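Morning run. Coffee first, then this:
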Amino acid sequence: MEINNFIKTIMENDLKEGKVDEIITRFPPEPNAYLHIGHARAIITNFELASAFNGYTNLRFDDTNPAKEGQEFVEGIITDLKWLGYTPKNVFYGSDYFEETYEKAILLIKKGLAYVDDLSQEEMSKMRGTLTTPGINSPYRNRSIEENLSLFAKMREGKYKDGEKTLRAKIDMAHPNMNMRDPAMYRIMHINHHRQGNKWCIFPMYDFAHPLQDSFEGITHSLCSLEYDNHRILYDWFIEHCEVKHVPHQYEFGRLNITNTIMSKRYIKQLVDAKKVSGYDDPRMPTLVGLRRRGFTPEAIKNFIVSTGLSRVNSTVESSQLEEALREDLKLKALRKHAIIHPLKLVIDNYPEGQVEYLDCPNNQENEELGNRKIAFSKYCYIEQEDFVETKPNKHWKRLAKDVEVRLMHAYYVKCNEVIKDEAGNIVEIHCTYDPETKSGSGFNGRKPNGNIHFVEATTAIKASFNLFEPLMLDETEENKDLDFMEKLNPNSLHTYEGFVEESFKNDAVGTHYQFIRNGYYILDKDSTASHLVFNRSCELKSSFKL
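And here it is:
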């Protein structure tokens, strides 16, 4: 995969100028949620850039906030990376460095650059000042080094309650960058850690722990999203004053937003907790596990991410671009089979009762390597309701109508002679005759049919459910822009229909990709049973995006 951007240029120059001997990056997710499509940009950028220079990437779990973290998310993240095709050289945990991080905090206290503060978070927030006014020093800021060392040791020993004391960096409460106004380094949390158990009751803050972890691992280029741009000065301050052996550097890139797509871990969790979706792997979700279940492929996601580019500016792209990347990836991979989503019974009156014949059919007309299969044909078939109208509306109608002849794909010409309706006037069955001389592949060069429609033979058909999706979020308008997040959910994001598929599906594995003829791309879902298959529509055959 060819990837070019400003960070790659920086890496090239750093190698050329001898600033680094090897490119080492890291992907540092917090294990408090499942990864979503926004994380894919960070994953792909880190792994692909390191690989481009024969370097490597570490996976490091930022597990310094145990209140929200858990093993479920750790395992989910590892699975997502493997699915995307990336293998980190090392798997580390931020908690692996708790002892070394603690020692660096002791060093800063001894250098007079950190102090234990008794102010609550709310009190300190009020004293921090604003962008135009300086903050006010904490009354505890000038504690002696000896007192700070003693208090910090007692914090570790569990002598204080949650929030009772905080270790802060002593920088400058009048600094124009708010992040430099005596930021918190450690907070007290009496809580079980998913790896460390109850060994620790003080936990380092991200801004303190992250640069140190980068240094401990020898990271050369610490890549992060643009929201951390104004944190870089603090990142560099900790690196400078903690006397580390290796000096890493932070580089920021713009976030990727996608229309009609939720790009917030907090909102995603709200959806799951409120049971607005079936779980993190609901096919409507922007999580990687949800996209995987919907039928998106690693190749499609990678190609999409690379196609969006990378810059120092946040960007928004249309969700249709992601779907187009999937269509492009699947067009030669997916099996092209027959499925009827809105069935209408078709009876061929002059076909022998009880006879079933099998017709040769390619699995993908554009990829001969996928081979052929046999599809059944008999007196009883299903066609799509939308492929029939009682009266042909105009010359452009190229499907079946009363007294009109069409070809059943890979089979014969059929002509509708009779329409059966229920008491409400709804069409429930159509009766046709077929011409046995018009079998597909026989070389018949007679009359031209009014179109070519697909079908599923009824006696061998397998029952199936089809899940069709719309975006979870409605388009933002003047009317709804001020509504709460939950009020912007699309009530029509899921439609389920009951229909049939041809019998060749019966031996297919969950996760098989299909192009349903004349319909869209689908994937066989894990909820399937032998007698009732479930399919999720990945995307339509053509983009619905209007320029």
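Residues 37-52 form the longest helix (16 residues). Good start to the day.
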